[in-house]
Known about the structure:
Layout lengths: L14 H26 L5 H12 L4 E3 H8 L3 H13 L3 E6 L2 E9 L1 H21 L6 H15 L7
Helix pairs in contact: 1-5, 2-5, 3-4
Amino acid sequence: MSKRSPGETVRWLDADEERAWRALRRMMIAIQSRTAHDLAAIGLSEADYEVLSTLSERPGRTSTLHEQAAKMGWSRSRLSRHATRMETRGLVRREPDPDDGRGCYLVLTEHGMETLEDAAPAHLESVRRHVIDRLSPADLSALESIARKLEEPACSRS
C-alpha cells in the first residue's frame, strides 16, 4: 500500500544515483557478511561483538538495556532476547535499574571481557582485510566524511 498522496511525484533515481545506491548496498552487504563470517569462525555473532565491545567502553562496563538497544538500532525486546542468550553463555549479566522499575542494566562479566579480548585481534584483522587495508588514506577520509553525513536522520523534504 502506497503512502503517497494523490498527484505526488516520485523522485526516481537517475542512472548515476542508481549506480551509486546499488554500489553502496553491495558494499554494505559484502563487508557485513565477510566480517560476520569471520566472527562466526571464533564463536561470536556481530551482535555479540557489538554488545561486548560497547559495554567494555562504558564506565563500570555497564549500560542500560534501553541505551544499548538504541545504540544498536534494536527494540528493547529484541535486545532482551539476545541478552538472555548471552547470559546463558556467561558473557553478560543483568542487574535491576533502581531508577526504572521495568528496566535493567547489562553488565559485562569477566568471562565476557576475556571473550572480547580473545576475539578482538581476529575481528580487527577481519576489518583490516575487508576494508582498511584496501583503501588509501584519502579513501578512508572520504569514507568517514560520507559516513558522518549519512549517520544522522535525513530531514523531511516538503
